[in-house]
Amino acid sequence: RNFPNREGSKIQNGQISSVALMDARSIAATAVNKGYLTPATDLDYEFTGPTYFFDRNIYDNRVYNGWGNPKPETEIQFGPNIKDWPEMIPLTKDLLLKMASVITDPVTTTDELIPSGETSSFRSNPIGLAEFTLSRKDPEYVGRAKAVQAQEAYRKDISNKADEMIDTARKMGVPIIVLSGRPYHLDPEINHGIHKLITSLGMAVITEDSICDRAASPDLHVFNQWTYHSRLYRAAEYVTTQDDMELVQLVSFGCGIDAITTDEVRSILEAHDKFYTQLKIDEISNLGAVKIRLRSLEAAIKGKHN
Q1: Cα–Cα distance measured from residue 34 to residue 11, given in angstroms and rounded to the nearest whole number
Q2: What is the distance between the alpha carbons of residues 206 and 306, in angstroms, rounded to a whole number?
Q3: So what's the pLDDT on residue 163?
Q4: Are 174 and 198 spatial neighbours (Cβ–Cβ below 8 Å)?
Q5: What is the largest distance, in Å, between two alpha-carbon atoms of the chain?
Q6: What pLDDT, on the 0 to 100 scale, is given for residue 1?
Q7: Cα–Cα distance between 33 and 17 in angstroms, integer?
Q8: What residues have CB less than 8 Å from 167, skipping those under 6 apart?
Q9: For residues 164 and 211, what is the distance between their CA atoms, to the nearest angstrom?
Q10: Which H or E run contains 128?
């Protein structure tokens, strides 16, 4: 059609790369003749097929015709390999994409995206059909795409858990602390149980990655190119829209990139009359200074709302 051998023919194996429009009997004759193009007139045969009769009762008994007779209460019965489309989430203004495959060929055909033949039985099963995506072009693609999908599901679980904790905190009337930090701050040897210390002071704790998707990136003074930084800025922006939330940032290094994030987060929060609390933690396990900072934050929150 638009380039030679699109349909997958291999000239080196004696296959042609063209399309032949044929009647049904000539197609059958070609199949009988081992694939060599053969018109039906070249074969000596006698057509002995039975006379065909159309029995409409078969369709009337199995196919519902709703024209002029709608029955919306009737549940549609799907066959074993007919599935609904998965939930289609609307695209947002800003997208952060993770690459699952890179294809540099000048032309990629639909048959390479999802090969025909073995996938024909999945035509009405979108999820089943998707299992064959790029199976010839990039066999590892489906596995990588599923990993991204699993990560997104995990993030959704975190967000749902944050909703539960926010709802509980608001029913109890306690402040909510958005505790932000780098991935290594998950290590108990590094964070020293600061989240437990915050809850012991009567405040709820959620993480910045559980609510960062609820706000767009604010206007910044720096180039925003890092995933963690982008997440942190959006979480800070969301906190500014919630009266009962404050943000606490864990920092282990006051220099380098962390110096940039602290300035930006402070600017975002203080522009909306929010407190900025930074806790610098290291290998020292004495949390005396941290307790003082958190108690000061607690007192400031109470003073602000009283």
Answers
A1: 17
A2: 24
A3: 96
A4: no
A5: 101
A6: 45
A7: 19
A8: none
A9: 12
A10: helix 126-130
Tokens for 103?
């294809």
Q: How far apart are CA 297 and CA 287, in angstroms?
A: 15
For residue 76, which amino acid is it?
I
Integer CA distances (angstroms), 219 to 78, 179, 236, in order: 50, 22, 12
How many whole angstroms separate alpha carbon 104 and alpha carbon 109?
A: 13
Tokens representing 268?
A: 């975002």
pLDDT at residue 269 in the model: 93
Phi and psi, residue 246, nearest 5° = -135, 155
pTM over 0.85: no
**Token reading at 246:** 């404050």
Rounded distance, CA 89 to CA 87, Å?
6
Summarised one tens digit per residue, pLDDT across range 113-149 is 887 777 877 888 888 889 999 888 899 999 999 999 9
Check residue 276 and report its DSSP letter: E
